[in-house]
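[09:14] KT: can someone run the structure on this one? pasting the chain below
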Amino acid sequence: MKSPYDYTKDFEKSMAEFCGAPYAVAVESGSAALFLSLQWWKSENCFVEHLEVPKHTYPSVPASVMHAGYKVKFTNCDWQDKGYYQLWPLPIVDSAKFIGKKMYYNNGMSGFVCLSFHGKKCLPIGRGGMILTGDETAYKWLKLARFDGRHEVPLANDIIEIVGWNMYMTPEQAVRGLELMQYLKDVNISPSDKYPDLSKMKCFKGALNGN
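[09:31] RB: done, structure tokens below
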């Protein structure tokens, strides 16, 4: 009999194979995928002055950057036609609106590629996200970090190794993801959205504005 954790593992394995990535870590949202990727680089003492973020994107992106302790440089990046962009200079790609067969290692997509499974996205589970990576050490850390530092075993049998976050994808979402994967095409791009100019909003006034 399968444990609830097995369904999440099955979804991770299927998505990694579809995208051509060595590893995949399922989380509660695309925003969580970005935040945990940023936290990994912070734990590796890879700190840069600022990260480039399109000024027309979802507000959780600059919020995640700032919550992770980085500053934001807003840019005029026009990304919606291709569905992804990099949080330069870190190797983190926000691919919330693009999922493609064997996409990993293509089009500059390596490092950490963050997917979103919101109801308006390519795989509309309703809520959920995933981190694709080729780094085994990061993969093992992310698996713990997204689940309160826990391993995928009964809590009474666990030994907590790190202080993590409550960002685990539920088995119900994973099953829905597995069901909908059969409808994915080789190239999937979500429709464009009308995002506001985040660089003009007071809550992001601490950002370093780009050109």
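[09:33] KT: thanks! The CA atoms of residues 199 and 205 lie 7 Å apart.
[09:34] RB: yep, looked fine to me
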